[in-house]
Write a structure and sequence with these properties.
By secondary structure, this protein is an alpha/beta fold. It contains eleven helices and 13 strands.
Length: 318
C-alpha cells in the first residue's frame, strides 16, 4: 500500500485521482488551500466524498508553506507525491501573472524540496498542454522545442515546473514523472472551462460565448482516461520523463457546440466574440510515449464523455 500526498485534492482532477487511489487501497493525504477560484462549495463536496474513506486525511493549507509540507511528508509516512495543485487558466494569468508565479512555481519548488528531504519514492508533477503554445508540429510530442516559447504567463509557469523537476532529478536522482493534461473534462469538472459553460448555458437557454470563428481545435480528455494515465505515472518509478495525457483526437469549437446541442437536446444561442489573446489555435497530443511507458489507452470519445458529463450535471448541479 502506498501513502500518497495529493495536492489540489479538493479540486476537479485532484479529487478524482485521490478517489481512484483510495478505491484501490492506498492511503491518501489531501492538501488544498480551498481557494475561491471557483465556488468553494464544490471543493467542500469533493472533500466530503473522499472523507467517506478511513484512509483519507484532509489538510487545508498552502503548498508554499514549506514547514507544513515537510511535516505532512515526514510525519504522514508519505511514499509518493501527486502534485496537482495549481492556479489554472490562461486568461486570468494575463491579468495577474504574479499570483500564478507564486502558486505554480514557488509552490512546486516547495514540494520538490520537501520530497527531496523526505526521500519520496516517486513524484508526479502536473504541467499543461498550454506549454506547446502555437506549435506547428502536429501532433504535439513531448520533445517539441516549442515548449521553450510559451504564449501566456500560465504556460510559462508550467514550463518552469518541468524545468525545476528536471533540476531536482539531475541534482538528487529524484524519480519524477511530468504529465501534460489536454483539456480534461467530466463529472465534478471546473465551472470555468468550456464543457461546463456550454452545458450550463444550453440547459438554461442562455447565450454561449463563442470566441473566434469556431475552427480552433482542442484535444478533449475525459477524466476517467486521464486518471488512469496519472495513476500509472505514480506507479512507474522511471527517472525523469514527460508524458502527454490526451485523447489524441481533436474537436473543433464548432463541432463541440454541435455535440452540446445533441447531448442537451437544445438549440444553442450563440454570442459571437473575437478570438482571445493567449489562446492557442490547436492542441493535439501524441500519446505514443504514454502508451509505451504508462500503458495509457484513452477510450472515451468526446460525444460519449459529454453525454456522461451532461447526465452528471443534470443530476447534481441542476
Amino acid at each position: 500500500m502506498k501513502t500518497v500526498l495529493v495536492t489540489g485534492a479538493a479540486g476537479f482532477i485532484g479529487s478524482h485521482v485521490a478517489e481512484r487511489l483510495l478505491a484501490r487501497g492506498d492511503a491518501v493525504i489531501g492538501l488544498d488551500n480551498v481557494n475561491d477560484y471557483y465556488p468553494i462549495q464544490y471543493k467542500r463536496e469533493n472533500v466530503e466524498l473522499l472523507s467517506a474513506s478511513p484512509r483519507f486525511k484532509f489538510v487545508e493549507g498552502d503548498i508554499c508553506n514549506g514547514a507544513l509540507v515537510e511535516s505532512l511528508i515526514v510525519k504522514g509516512g508519505v511514499t509518493h507525491l501527486a502534485h496537482l495543485a495549481a492556479r489554472a487558466g490562461v486568461r486570468p494569468s494575463i491579468e495577474d501573472p504574479f499570483m500564478y508565479q507564486e502558486a505554480n512555481v514557488r509552490g512546486t519548488l516547495t514540494l520538490l524540496e520537501a520530497a527531496r528531504k523526505g526521500r519520496i519514492a516517486n513524484t508526479v508533477v502536473t504541467s499543461s498542454s498550454s506549454v506547446y503554445g502555437n506549435s506547428t508540429r502536429i501532433p504535439f510530442r513531448e520533445d517539441d522545442s516549442a515548449t521553450d516559447r510559451p504564449i501566456s504567463p500560465y504556460a510559462a509557469t508550467k514550463k518552469a515546473t518541468e524545468v525545476l523537476s528536471h533540476t531536482y532529478h539531475s541534482l538528487y536522482g529524484m524519480k519524477i514523472n511530468v504529465v501534460r493534461p489536454f483539456t480534461v473534462y467530466g463529472p465534478r469538472g471546473r465551472p470555468d472551462m468550456a464543457p461546463w459553460l456550454f452545458i450550463a448555458a444550453a440547459l438554461d437557454g442562455k447565450p454561449i460565448r463563442k470566441f473566434g470563428d469556431g475552427t480552433t481545435r482542442r484535444d478533449y480528455t475525459f477524466i476517467d482516461d486521464f486518471v488512469s494515465g496519472f495513476v500509472n505515472a505514480i506507479d512507474r518509478e522511471i527517472g525523469y520523463e514527460i508524458f502527454n495525457l490526451g485523447n489524441s483526437a481533436t474537436v473543433s469549437l464548432n463541432e463541440a457546440l454541435e455535440t452540446v446541442s445533441k447531448v442537451t437536446g437544445r438549440e444553442l444561442k450563440i454570442e459571437q466574440l473575437p478570438a482571445q489573446p493567449g489562446d492557442v489555435e490547436l492542441t493535439n497530443a501524441d500519446v505514443s510515449k504514454a502508451k509505451r511507458l504508462l500503458d495509457y489507452h484513452p477510450v472515451t470519445s468526446f460525444r460519449d464523455g459529454m453525454k456522461k458529463f451532461h447526465d452528471w450535471f443534470v443530476r447534481v448541479r441542476r
